[in-house]
Write a structure and sequence with these properties.
It contains 18 helices and twelve strands. It has 426 residues and is an alpha/beta fold. It folds into two domains: 31-155, Alpha-Beta Plaits (2-Layer Sandwich), CATH 3.30.70; 172-425, TIM Barrel. Residues 1-26 are annotated as: Disordered.
Length: 426
């Protein structure tokens, strides 16, 4: 029946023989938009969190998947102080947000990961070294890595990257086997130490302290060569907590190694407050406790700030020193290390640090020199350029492969830096 007064429909029926209108093409990407935002807001990122959905790592995906994920993220915007979604040219999705409970964000991300991996697989680990379809992080603590990733998208317009062959992440069952093996295993061949050297002593190589650590990859090859222990960050964190207990058990057999030298121990905050550490502490005299540096990773600190405060009080009472490990130049510039009450702060050397603008470098070096109670260590120096940067920026302590090589040759670190400066000037 014809109804002359009926409203016109807002759709058109496709007649036989006609082709339906094509579906929308891949949406325009937001690479430049995100890059511009990051570059303009790098001094104002405190409080912002970032979700990186690694859709590019899926073997099969559709643009409909990406748009569905975008809608799912936008639905959480009502509960946030700020949320913005960016579609990247490689099909990844990045979300910047503020003011949403971590549990809510984690639930949404887990549902997305479960949905995607129910019908396809990831071809490799994500850019942050995790075996996960998503990464959630504090933007201020990972600013440089995120910025470099987005800048890399601008440079790499050639298409898909080569698939990297990696070992599968460790399973909970396999981790249980390793833990049982470690309890009956001699860890001493895997317990290494690396010196932290004072570069200003022109008379001799002055050892500030020796960092004691477990060669995890070597341990992996010995106990579980078919799996990657570090791939799953949650299981790896659980593994290191248990590994700490084994290290303390090994150290409890004798404390003579502490006499006349200072030792840095990489420990989780929960380990320092555990019964095993108390037992270790009871075997030390006051003088020996002063020779122990408790190295705490920045990620552990951020996730357990209340525990950190307890550790600071405990260390001050018992005479231990504290080192915050894993910092980058951005964190050093914006973090109040005097308030954190640490004795050392360890910065991870990167070639990108030589690319800082004049203003960024001036702010960075000024912050270094302004610290009175905290001494800085430039760690993981693989080349002499890192040592030269340390001297130029006012960082007095260095550590890394190139330091080990120089020491093996019997050369003073101070002289090696001086020679390198002369050669670079030529």
């Amino acid at each position: 029946m014809n109804r002359p007064n009926a409203p016109k429909r807002d759709w058109v029926r496709v007649k036989p023989g006609e082709r339906a209108a094509p579906l929308a093409e891949k949406p325009e990407h937001d690479d430049q938009k995100l890059l511009t935002l990051l570059q303009s807001a790098k001094r104002e990122v405190q409080g912002l969190r970032l979700i990186h959905l690694h859709m590019s790592l899926l073997k099969d995906k559709t643009h409909l998947d990406i748009m569905s994920i975008r809608r799912a993220m936008q639905e959480t915007a009502d509960q946030s102080a700020y949320l913005q979604v960016f579609n990247l040219s490689n099909d990844d999705v990045i979300v910047l947000y503020k003011g949403i409970k971590f549990s809510l964000i984690s639930d949404v991300c887990q549902k997305i990961e479960k949905l995607m991996l129910a019908r396809t697989i990831m071809v490799r680990r994500n850019p942050y070294g995790e075996d996960s379809l998503y990464s959630i992080m504090e933007l201020s603590l990972n600013f440089v890595n995120v910025l470099r990733f987005v800048e890399g998208l601008q440079k790499d317009v050639s298409g898909e990257q080569a698939v990297q062959q990696t070992k599968p992440p460790i399973t909970l069952e396999e981790l249980g086997k390793i833990e049982r093996a470690v309890q009956m295993f001699d860890l001493s061949p895997f317990m290494l130490n690396q010196p932290v050297i004072n570069i200003h002593n022109a008379e001799q190589n002055e050892f500030e302290y020796f960092e004691l650590y477990i060669a995890v990859k070597a341990l992996e090859e010995r106990l579980s060569p078919q799996f990657d222990i570090t791939a799953n960050k949650w299981l790896f964190s659980y593994f290191t907590a248990n590994l700490d207990q084994s290290v303390l058990k090994a150290l409890n057999y004798g404390v003579d190694f502490l006499r006349g030298r200072r030792l840095g121990l990489n420990l989780n905050l929960s380990t320092i407050l555990s019964a095993s550490f108390i037992k270790f502490d009871e075997r030390l005299t006051t003088d020996l406790r002063g020779n122990v540096v408790l190295e705490i990773n920045k990620a552990d600190l951020v996730e357990n700030i209340s525990l950190y405060k307890e550790v600071v009080d405990f260390a001050a009472t018992r005479g231990y020193r504290i080192c915050i490990d894993g910092l980058n130049e951005f964190w050093v510039t914006h973090m109040d290390l005097e308030y954190m009450a640490c004795d050392y702060a360890k910065i991870i050397w990167s070639d990108d640090m030589d690319l800082m603008s004049e203003d960024e470098y001036a702010t960075f070096s000024e912050k270094i020199r302004a610290q009175h109670n905290c001494r800085f260590v430039l760690a993981r120096c693989g080349t002499v350029s890192g040592l030269m940067f340390a001297e130029r920026a006012g960082i007095g302590l260095v550590q890394g492969r190139v330091v080990d090589n120089i020491l093996r040759k019997g050369v003073l670190i101070h002289d090696a830096i001086k020679t390198a400066k002369v050669m670079s000037d030529d």
